[in-house]
Amino acid sequence: MLEEEVLIERLKDPLTREASYRALISTHKQRLYWHIRKIVMNHDDADDVLQNTFIKVFRHIDGFKGDSKLYSWMYRIATNESISFLNNKAKHSHMDLQTLQEQRVNNLKADVYFDGDEIQFKLQKAIISLPQKQQLVFNMKYFDDMKYEQMSEILDTSVGALKASYHHARKKIELYLLNN
Amino acid sequence: MEHPKKNILSTLKKSGPGFSHPEGYFDGLEDRFVEGLKNKEVQQSEESLIQGLEAIGKSHGFKVPDGYFAQDNLNIVVPRSHKVISLVSKNIKKWGGLSIAASLLLFIGLRFFTSDNAQMELTELSNTDIENWIDADLISFSSYDIAEAYNDVNLENEMYSDEEIDVYIDNIDIENILLEN
Q1: Cβ within 8 Å, pair B30-A22
Q2: Which residue of A53, A77, B67, B115 has the lowest C-beta tally within 10 Å?
């Protein structure tokens, strides 16, 4: 916690902010990348969203109150940036979010940065069939093994609701995979 | 690879989502993102400069002393009672009247010049009126216009004799011609 406080102070100080910014990127780049990547699916888009996430973190660090951990706060920014990115894409393509996500999953078959087999492809199709919030909960719990308490901070949802959400998501996905 | 249908999620978890990224993607990411941030900041400062200039452009920057517009300081005598005249209605009256007069004149003029009697009525004009009209420069014909209009008349033979032209040239005052033209 002390380290985090020091890092935040250094980010606010013009003399140390660039070095601190680099340290912040080094520490969180991989986990945030994979979180974003599972939402937007495409590598190039994930790269753009990750960069925008760090820029937003840097610009709004003064507004970070310390109510949650810095990492949870960054995760929340990354989640919002990813969803905004998809919504904007859908808007520009004149389609709804669900149709856009289906299109993105179908594009995975031709994506050189998707190494999954048929069942992993079907799993992605099953995930996007869920409501948006359940998609997030499933990805964070199933792939990242994130604790409910941390998810609660990021998604601003109670632990109980998250547990129920994950349970429903898992059942729906199992059913989807059994039927397809 | 075949996955058992039962407890499929437990089996799949080990394989992960199946995504990959370009080799060495995470190497040097810090440099690229720091550079990106600097570019964004430059771009933003340029944008805010332009916005600032636009804001300055909209205000003239002049100031007046405090209370300048208070009535006591202006020294302008305002009539106690004044009639508010509507500029719109005044203009309508003024231009409306003129429009009606112009329409009437146009109507009469068209009737006058296009009727069958127009030629007859023109011949009734006195020579003095026509001379005044020409002197007032209300009509001007070039020598070419006149020659065109009277192309059936031999001007050389009928208007002036050679002697008359010689006399005219001998007596001509060049300075007067230059002044007149």
Answers
A1: yes
A2: B67
Residue A127's CB: how many other CB atoms inside 10 A? 25
ipTM score for this prediction: 0.83
Return the residue of B nearest to A123 by Cα: B17
Q: How far is CA B147 from CA B82, B133, B162, B173, B175, in A?
A: 65, 21, 19, 26, 27
Contact criterion met (CB below 8 Å) for A128 and A98: yes
Contact B1 A119 (CB under 8 A): yes
Q: Judge contact between B3 and A95, C-beta under 8 A.
A: no
Which of B33, B41, B45 would best serve as a mutation to test chain A binding (most A beta carbons within 10 A)? B33
What SS3 state is found at B70? Answer: coil
What percentage of chain A carries pLDDT values higher than 70? 99
Chain B CB contacts of A43 below 8 Å: 19, 21-22, 25
- pLDDT tens for each residue of B126-151: 777 877 777 776 666 677 777 777 77
